[in-house]
Amino acid sequence: YFLGGKYGVFEKLFREKPVIVKALDGIDLEIYHNEVLGMVGESGSGKTTLGRVLATLENPTEGEIYFEGEKITQKNIDKIRKQVQMVFQNPSSSIDPRMRIFDIVAEPLRKVNETEKRERVKKVLEDVGLDYDYVSNKYPRELSGGQLQRIAIARAIITEPIFLVLDEPTSALDVSVQAQILNLLVKIQKEKELTYMFITHNINVARYISDRIGVLYAGKLTEIGNAEDIISSPKHPYTQSLINSIPSLTRRELNPPKGEVPSLINPPTGCRFHPRCPFAMDICSKKEPPLFDVNGRKVACWLLNQQ
Ligand code: SF4
What we know:
The protein is of the alpha/beta class. Helix content is 32%, strand content 24%. It has twelve helices and twelve strands. β7 (163-167), α8 and β8 (195-200) form a beta-alpha-beta unit. α5 (114-127) crosses α7 (145-157) and α7 (145-157) runs parallel beside α8 (175-192). It is elongated and about 65 Å long. 40% of the residues are buried. Bound molecules: iron/sulfur cluster. Residues 236-237, 271, 273-274, 277, 279-281, 284, 289, 301-303 line the site of iron/sulfur cluster (SF4). Residues 236-237, 271, 273-274, 277, 279-281, 284, 289, 301-303 line the site of iron/sulfur cluster.
């Protein structure tokens, strides 16, 4: 595989007394070269934390991550960071409003001379469908949300990374431009043979863009496999409730089951989904299910225990 590992991530929040939030716990995941892995889940499922960890913006407190066969350590993290980029939901939060577009896009190119910088900015703006002469001297406030997300994508790909984490890159945009940005991301992934982890809560977007889909619930990976298979025959009760409750193809959002996503400070014992699961059995509250392999699909549910 291309990127993978086994790790738990802990975030510490200090309010009245220190509490430990396990934003992700024991995630065992592999991402393959040139694939688009869609990562879906409700808010609070840990998908953004997972994206930040894989984009090397946060360190897991336990476990290890391998990038192209090499374990990520403090020694090689700078080299790996050049090959990994993240695009966020809201472009204006990741773009400095006081900088001109040229400087925003060129910012990651530190040790490059001015002539080459201009050439590369020009090329990358072309890649994202923007005209260099039209945008390079403008400020972010002079561009639309869709144009700004194109700028954020241009800045992410200018260093020629091989892995992009895309965190809900279309959900803050007007519906009319969401499809354009999605198609642009598909085109760039194919042309540059990139690997994506595409985080979304929109099941139709996940289906459209992904080769495989992973489902997160309360910091745990519950199911992962081929995108079409997961959508047409979800096996984990949580995935079933997300997908089967979509009444029509025009409905776009995930429709989570009744009940709250559990607290990550004090998560339920055993299977974290057991308080909301219609199929919960005795074992479910006592013992955590491992990821069972079901014809190439991985599903963390005792119902799938073949032994
Ligand atoms: Fe439901 Fe048990 Fe499967 Fe968890 S392990 S999803 S509680 S049946």
